[in-house]
Amino acid sequence: MPLLQIDKLAKQFGGVKALDGVDFHIDEGEIVSVIGPNGAGKTSFFNVISGMFAPDSGSIVFDGDHVAGHLPNEITKRGIARTFQNVRLFPNLTVLENVMVGQHCRTSQGLFGTIFQTKAQKAEEQLIEDNAKEILSFFGTRLTGYRHDQPAFALSYANRRRLEIARAMATEPRLLLLDEPTAGMNPKETIELTQLIEKLRSERGLTVVLIEHDMKVVRDVSDRVVVLDHGVKLTEGDYDSVSTNEAVIEAYLGRPTTEASS
Amino acid sequence: MSRDSYVTRWGLIGGLGMSFTGAIGMINSFDERILINPILSMGYLTLFGLPAVVGYVAAKGEVNILEEPVHDIADGALKGAGTGLIAGVAVALFVLFTNTFDVTDFFPNMRQTMVDVMTLHLDLVIGLITLIVLSAAGGAVGGLIYGLDDKARGGVRRATLWVIVFALFELVVTDIIDIEVITDLIYARGGGLQTWSALIIGGLAWWLGERYQGKVSEFTAMARESEQGSRLRWSLIGVAALGIVVLPMLVGGIVNELLINVALFVLMGLGLNIVIGLAGLLDLGYVAFFAVGAYGMAVLTSPLSPAFSPELNWWVALPVVMVLAAIAGLLVGTPVIGMRGDYLAIVTLGFGEIVRLLLLSDWLTPFFGGAQGMTRIPGIAIGPWTISGTSPELFIYMTALFVGIAAYISHRAQDSRVGRAWAAMREDEDVAEAIGISTVQAKLLAFVSGAVIASFAGALFSAKVGTVFTNSFDVVVSLIILVVVIVGGMGSIRGVAIGALVLIGVLGGPKSQGLLTEFAEFKLLIYGAILVYMMLKRPEGLLPSVRRSRELHLEEAEQDAWLQKKGDSSEDEEVEATT
Amino acid sequence: MFAGVSTAAPEVAKTRRFKFNWVDGFLWFIRVAAIITIVVGITGSIQKFAGGGGPSVEAWRDLIISSISTGSMYGLIALGYSMVYGVLGFINFAHGEVFMSGTMVGLISATILFNNGFWDSNPYVSILLVLIVAMITSMLVAVVVERVAYRPLRGAPRLIPLITSIGVSFFIQYAFAGLFGVAIRNYPPAPASLARDFDILGIPVEGTKLLVISVAVLSMIGLWYFVTKTKTGSAMRAVAEDKEIAGLMGIDVDKTIVTTFAVGGAMAGVAGLLWALLFRGVDFLTGFLPGIKAFTAAVLGGIGNLPGAMLGGVLLGLFEGVGPLLVLDGLGIPAVSQLKDAVAFAALVLVLIFRPSGLLGERLGSEERA
């Protein structure tokens, strides 16, 4: 049984069909790329899965449970975490705090424990901090040491992207949705991130769906590629079959004959 | 913009400001208060302080961040004098106008006594000339101060600040020293500092400041950063606590009364600080929870409660009141969960007014006394004693206790799981929701904790005064608590304390007078001016929390500057902001 | 917001677990309770009326007419809120004070005209003169406030201008208290020719109220023409849509914003005169309540929508004028007129719960109210 099973997912925004009956599934431990030209509905796809928008119709089954239309925080708690296309960190919290916040849904101490400094609260705070530091150390030395106490806005662009992944990891997900994780990175950083995605699976046991424009990343990292265009799934398969598929090429480049005649 | 036009522009602004203070009766009213006997009253400080300020600004000219600012004494003084001169001529024309035409029908404060004070009680012509000359002199002094080098300017600033502080806090200082021989040395019998004691205080402030300022900032840096600083921090807190214990014994009833007011506002400020400073929810109806606390306590303890009168002990009633406040927090919080920013502000304001209007209405009079209010609310019983407003020197400890509790709660909450969730929600609500924070829970928790803290203040207030009337729960109270939080620094506990001390203690609260009773009519005017000034120039408040100050300076350039400046503390800026 | 209210296809809905959400539940409870209260209240009032109790038909008619005239004054103030919100995206809390400054300074001119007899000899010319004075004053105050307090805050986090406007509001209020004193002052009485009733479609309407309603309607039409037909008006709409793009298209954004404040101020000035005609008494706090109510009216009609502001104003006038007597009195609550303001605020809360985008608002969904 797949980890995430999506059937006939549809979402309209005022007459524009962002998603028009998309079927999708991903098995535990898979890495799947979602590609497609601009405006194909990729980010809407993520927004609906992560609960930021409720779908108009269709079902989303995660690990055997229907989650369509649930609140984002409930979906995160069930084990789906995401990053955003235009990096949305909490810019004025420190790097460490950004990750610690991610642990929120896995911890439970409320105001009472905080005020009375219960043992459980202290232990949990310590645990949150340790976990956060451990997650940050996953990125090598990039986000450790003095960077822990730096406000997030002071980070370089690539580091912000990494921090956002770290924050998503802190929610202890089973499925990670990465929205253009390499956008704006230089080639070296891109290669590093490609390896990191691989490591997320091998070391952390995560299942990953990523939206990506860089075809090299898509080729290197994905087990399977899904192509969206105008809210419809064009095709799916391994990278080679997809990259030679005519419908896909057409979607990206336009139809040569009609282009010429119009 | 050319430098001359700066002089003209600021001169006219200065003249307008001086005329305005005259026209609203501020100069006359402030003239009653003598600062330095016999030469300077607060009225004249205001009148001639204004040209000094505009002179300073005009001498500063356009700020160009790429160039080192030029500090030149002669140039500064000249420009300042020019600015002051223009201001003086403008205000002289205004005085002349007031003297010639009778407009008291419309502008009751533009009367002969205003002309008398503004012409320094001299003949009209001589008086006007003196006014212009002194205004020019004031401007020159302002410009000259800008022209001084950094060290001397800091000295002047400190000296002025401390002389004014000593002059304004005459009542507190005499209460604390309480030995007539010494206070007579400092203060004149008719009020105000002695001229020579003012000189000594100024000189001391200059000299001591110069000598020890470096060490002080070193010391605070150490207390803030280092490992051994932790012990130092605790000893500082200990000293502060000791001060809180000892101070009420030294000062008299009036000052204690003031301190209680301040403490109640600190309490409410801390509560509102959780809602707005930590969770980022702009609540303009916060006073409703204060009302719940006060009325709840009144109903539960007063024998004259019209409908239901269990006559509980204060301590027994307190938990009930807290629960009521928590419910009120949920009731107000739930409908507004989907609203953000401005909408939230205006709806909470509406809620606050609804509560007050209902309490006042005939409909609920059988329960809450309506316009007659609730009376005979007993004090707080501790063993055989009862503490109420009649013994302010004891009651202050009660309020201090609850302030301590509230401060502790805020302090703990800030860096906890809950506090982080609030911070995340404040920064980006959608993302907070997406990473697994239930914003519904977080918002309700903020509303409820804020409400409970406000109910403490309400419960203390009703026990202190012994009566509650709806006019203590006007919307203006909500707004003033907001000003306290903002002026002090959103998200900062020390900030709230300083904000309340400066605003409520010195200027006065919505229904109570401050230390400077002359401010009574003008305090809300000054509140407004301070609020606008702070928002334009220092939105993070006097003692900001680090997070908040980052947030409020969005531009990258400023953020970078902040990062660089983070090392050397903002001691100097704080002085600038308070002067 | 994101709560699971979705129009899912039936076969999917079956598979979805029913989820109860406390917040939604509570909001539904409020909705139902509000409707029940209103229905019960109205039924009670009707029974009372049928039984010969309560106000007479004439009293109801007069109440409705005066509510509409008060409401159209709220509508004029609401226009200023709506326009500023449309262009800058924040509630200009000080707009009520802009209105107050118009009526206070208008009072000076009215008193002078009254003292030299011109008010009695040429009442309508006098009213026109006072109108001009009030409009110019409010316009100036609005523009100066924009220049001094709001312009430096372009691009600041959105709560900062709101908090600033609270400060401005305090400042203007107490500046006027200092200048004019704190006593309530009265405008000279309206000319005798306005005190009598006029016959409108068989309904007698008091002259003052007729004048108020017609001035409000005329101002509204003028504003509508200005915004939709003139070049400046289209610049305003462009800036409201997107400041940056408007700037790139060669529109002077700062100038347009000043114009917005000026026009909004002028409308508040007109409202200032209408207030004087309706109530005569003014003081430095005159602006506060009408200001908040006008904001409610703007929200009610759909903020950013100009006809909506006017409609919202009239509706709010009716709610607070007729509502207490119609609903609360029927519930057996004594002295309902005391609760007039509470009804207005309750209307605000209910509107935001029932229909946050307002009656005519389509531009601003709950998503955008960030």
Written description of the protein model:
The complex is a heterotrimer of chains A (262), B (579) and C (370). Chain A is of the alpha/beta class and 262 residues long. Chain A has eleven helices and ten strands. Chain A is globular and about 65 Å long. Chain B is mostly helical. Chain B contains 26 helices and five strands. In chain B, α21 crosses α23. Chain C is built from 15 helices and four strands. In chain C, α3 packs antiparallel against α12. The chains are: A alpha/beta (262), B mainly alpha (579), C mainly alpha (370). Chains in contact: A-B, A-C, B-C.
In terms of topology, how is this protein built?
The complex is a heterotrimer of chains A (262), B (579) and C (370).
Chain A: E1 4-13, E2 16-26, E3 31-35, H1 42-49, E4 57-62, E5 65-66, H2 72-78, E6 80-82, H3 95-102, H4 111-116, H5 119-137, H6 157-170, E7 175-179, H7 187-204, E8 207-211, H8 215-221, E9 224-229, E10 232-237, H9 239-243, H10 246-253, H11 256-261
Parallel strand pairs in A: 3-8, 3-9, 6-7, 7-8
Antiparallel strand pairs in A: 1-2, 1-4, 4-5, 9-10
Helix pairs in contact in A: 3-5, 3-6, 5-6
Chain B: H1 3-23, H2 26-31, E1 34-37, E2 40-41, H3 42-60, H4 73-100, H5 112-118, H6 124-147, H7 150-168, H8 170-177, H9 180-186, E3 193-194, H10 195-225, H11 229-250, H12 253-278, H13 287-301, H14 314-333, H15 341-360, H16 365-368, E4 380-382, E5 385-387, H17 392-414, H18 417-427, H19 429-434, H20 439-465, H21 475-488, H22 493-507, H23 523-537, H24 546-552, H25 556-565, H26 571-578
Parallel strand pairs in B: 1-3
Antiparallel strand pairs in B: 1-2, 4-5
Helix pairs in contact in B: 1-3, 1-4, 3-4, 3-6, 4-5, 4-6, 7-10, 7-26, 10-11, 11-17, 12-17, 12-20, 12-21, 12-22, 13-14, 13-15, 13-20, 14-20, 17-20, 18-20, 21-22, 21-23
Chain C: H1 10-15, H2 22-50, H3 57-88, H4 95-115, H5 118-121, H6 123-150, H7 159-180, E1 185-186, H8 192-195, E2 197-200, E3 203-206, H9 207-229, H10 231-241, H11 243-248, H12 253-279, E4 281-282, H13 288-301, H14 306-328, H15 340-354
Antiparallel strand pairs in C: 1-4, 2-3
Helix pairs in contact in C: 2-14, 3-9, 3-12, 3-13, 3-14, 4-6, 4-7, 4-12, 4-13, 6-12, 9-10, 9-12, 10-12, 13-14, 13-15, 14-15
